[in-house]
Amino acid sequence: MEDYTNVLIHAARVGNLEVIRELLSRGVDVNVRDEKGFTPLLIACYNNRPEAAELLLESGADVNAGDNGGNTALMGAAFKGLPDVASLLIRHGANLNSQHGNGGTALMFATMFGRNELVKLLLESGADAGVLDVRGQSAFDLAMQQGNQEAITLLA
Predict the structure, then answer these.
(1) What would the pLDDT profile of 89-123 be if each residue is shown by its tens digit?
(2) I need a labelling partner for 151 at 20 to 30 A (CA). Which of 31, 42, 122, 141 fits?
């Protein structure tokens, strides 16, 4: 079989559902990775393509797959401030407390970048605010450093 990795990843990036369906029907691995470890799901989520993400998840995409640095789709949604994508991932069982290589979590990303709608969503969904990164810092510590008053209130 030809290698359609890049085609599937590009289709996920632009949200081309027709191409995604066709490639998956031809047996292309839904969890295929590029050289950076990105899966089609990671790319769809990072590029705010919830319809493509949902199709990939329904086709067996690993909701907790991380790239080569350990960053998951939920972390990307939190970093970019994409509540619809985050909600989709949470509904599909995303690990709320997954940590990347430096120990950061989706909650920490949301806190650091002022994505307070995501901070609230993650906390309401059961994210553990007590998780520490490799420096021994929690989401609350990061909120304090950033002067993110809303997150400080949510995390207190």
Answers:
(1) 999 999 999 999 999 999 999 999 999 999 999 99
(2) 42
Neighbours of 99 (CB within 10 A): 19
Question: Within 10 Å of residue 1's Cβ, how many Cβ atoms?
Answer: 6
Of 75, 78, 156, 71, residue with least CA distance to 117: 78
Tokens of 95: 């690990």
Res 62: pLDDT:
98
From 144, 86, 59, select the one nearest 40 (Cα to Cα): 59
Residues across the chain: 156
The pLDDT-based confidence of 1 (bands split at 50, 70, 90) is very low
Helix, strand, or coil (residue 72): strand
- Token pair for 34: 């590029």
Side-chain-facing half-sphere of 67: CA atoms under 13 Å: 17
105 DSSP assignment:
-
